[in-house]
Specification:
By secondary structure, the protein is α+β, with helices and mostly antiparallel strands. About 40% of the residues lie in helices and about 20% in strands. It contains 18 helices and 21 strands. Strands 3, 4, 5, 6, 7 and 8 form a six-stranded antiparallel sheet that branches. Strands 10-11-12-15-16-21 form a six-stranded mixed sheet, with helices on both faces. It starts with a helix and ends with a helix.
Length: about 550
């Protein structure tokens, strides 16, 4: 309750101030409400029955106030600024390794190529026991991250447990400047089709995509698949740079409009393109947001690429960061962005919340239609609609449980220990006998989970009891539940394709790092197969884009 009061007061201070039209009235109300808040906070701090943490209490109030605006306007205190900077630049001082927590273990899940982690012998599958002399069982994951990172040039040691070695081993590293690639993978597919995976929009994203395309063209690429699935966005000007690769100089890519007209801006392509003719498909899904949607939407508006996949996320808001006192920062939404046709693809309307505070989507009744360069009709207010829709397969609960519980990870470690080498990732596939060995290994493991069907059965039981039908329906309900439990015994076979894919990705990463986990998944990827079909069928490609 105390936290809600503080958050509410901060929110009221701002909302009251915004209701006044003249600058004098607004500034007076801001000063007045800040004075009320300061007085309130002082009294709470002095009189509340228990000790309060002033920093934590104020941050709770600030977070509640900003949350009432939208999820993207955030306060970044001084101790989180470095993490914020890493998120926006993709750079940090470290060793070049990714870890995750599995059942109170910190394990290495990926090694970045050519950095000190790889050079000094760290391996995927290692369990980290200590960082320097600090036992990881005594600290949390956030503290682990801070210990792993540090100033470039400083030393750090890891004590790790490795399969096949009885005693823990100690590895020494010198921290270096780590730059996480926006393009972790690019390569040639069959039929002279190039493929570029773009996962982020941090600095140099445009340069990385450009270099990848040039390299692919040198290898004979005659068409391109640009994959921004699961890419949450990032720097707007990098989206402009990527569009510039495929569009002539002087084309508008995106416009931003906010409440301050002087800050409204059009972003145009400034450089000569790499290739304005190569056929392009862009893969999107519900995880493609912000800058990813600028790229997809702009290339769609100019009929420069066929968009394939699911409807995108629908984030059409622009944020900028502003420095605050005491080395803290504010990330604040300042504008909405619009594609070249004038579309705003923002799906949630934060400016018109319901009475309970929830947020609704933009109603279909007020969505507007726009026309692309060749006259195709596109719409605003709901993300980017793909030109060719595909249906993504939902990962089943059993596959997710095996991943989250670390069973796939641990078996991949065991497999790599028993197999010094494997085929190249595009050829590698677990045989039926090898998958059967995995199923046998899982036999004595506890991987109980609650499926969607289990949840529905629980709801049905509750409703039957509420409606007084439970005793009458109990025999049928018990029979259905027993059938569900019986079917679960066969789920490792029933969802073999999903589990096998995840397992193969984990296994190949041990031998080929990022490249392995990407390439081994190609054979399962229906979006890539559809993109290949479209690119190989020139009449269809032109028909989709309404080109002559």
């Amino acid at each position: 309750m105390r936290k809600r009061i503080i958050g509410g007061m901060l929110c009221i201070a701002v909302l009251i101030a915004l209701s006044f039209t003249t600058p004098t009235e607004r500034y007076f109300e801001i000063a007045k409400n800040l004075d009320i808040f300061a007085t309130l906070f002082k009294e709470v701090n002095a009189l509340y029955v228990d000790e309060v943490n002033p920093n934590k209490l104020v941050k709770t109030g600030i977070d509640a106030m900003l949350e009432s605006l939208d999820p993207y306007t955030n306060y970044i205190p001084e101790d989180m600024v470095e993490d914020f900077r890493t998120l926006n630049t993709g750079q940090y001082g470290g060793i070049g390794a990714f870890t995750r927590e599995i059942n109170n273990r910190t394990v290495v899940t990926m090694i970045l190529e050519s950095y000190t982690a790889q050079k000094s012998g760290l391996k995927i599958g290692d369990e980290i026991l200590k960082i320097d002399h600090v036992d990881l069982s005594k600290i949390n994951s956030e503290e682990e991250g801070h210990l792993m990172k540090g100033q470039v040039g400083t030393l750090v040691s890891l004590t790790v447990k490795r399969m096949g070695i009885d005693k823990p081993i100690k590895l020494d590293f010198k921290r270096e400047k780590i730059k996480v690639n926006n393009v972790p993978y690019f390569g040639m597919m069959e039929n002279n089709i190039g493929y570029i995976q773009l996962l982020e929009f941090t600095p140099d994203a445009g340069k990385e995509v450009k270099n990848a395309l040039v390299a692919l063209k040198e290898k004979g690429a005659k068409a391109l698949i640009l994959d921004v699935r699961g890419n949450p966005g990032g720097l707007l000007f990098e989206a402009v740079n990527i569009c510039n690769i495929f569009l002539p100089r002087g084309k508008i890519v995106v416009s931003t409009k906010g409440k301050i007209p002087e800050h409204n801006q059009n972003y145009e392509t400034l450089n000569n393109p790499v290739d304005t003719e190569i056929p392009v498909t862009v893969l999107i899904n519900r995880g493609s947001a912000s800058a990813s949607e600028i790229v997809a939407g702009t290339l769609q508006d100019y009929d420069r690429a066929v968009i394939i996949g699911e409807k995108s996320y629908g984030k059409g808001l622009v944020q900028v960061s502003r420095p605050l006192s005491y080395n803290s920062q504010l990330k604040v939404t300042t504008a909405k962005y619009y594609t070249p046709t004038g579309r705003c693809i923002q799906v949630l309307d934060y400016s018109h919340r319901r009475e309970d505070g929830s947020v609704g989507t933009i109603p279909d009744s007020i969505k507007q239609s726009f026309k692309t360069a060749s006259g195709r009709v596109v719409y605003d207010g709901g993300g980017i609609d793909p030109d060719v829709k595909t249906q993504a397969k939902e990962i089943h609960s059993i596959a997710q449980k095996l991943y989250e519980s670390g069973f796939l990870y641990d078996y991949a470690t065991l497999y790599a220990f028993n197999h010094p080498t494997i085929a190249n990732p595009r050829s590698f596939s677990l045989t039926n006998d090898e998958y059967a060995q995995f199923v046998l290994w899982m036999k004595d493991k506890n991987y109980a989970y609650t499926s969607y069907l289990d949840q529905q059965m629980s709801e049905l039981n509750r409703e039957a009891k509420r409606e007084k039908y439970y005793s009458e329906l109990k025999p049928q309900l018990d029979l259905i539940q027993s059938k569900i439990e019986e079917s679960k015994k066969n789920e490792l076979q029933l969802y073999k394709d999903q589990i096998k894919k995840l397992l193969e990705e984990d296994i190949t990463s041990r031998y080929y790092l990022e490249k392995g986990s990407v390439e081994v998944g190609f054979k399962y990827d229906l979006d890539i197969k559809k993109a290949t079909e479209v690119l190989l069928n020139t009449p269809q490609y032109k028909k989709i884009l309404n080109l002559k």
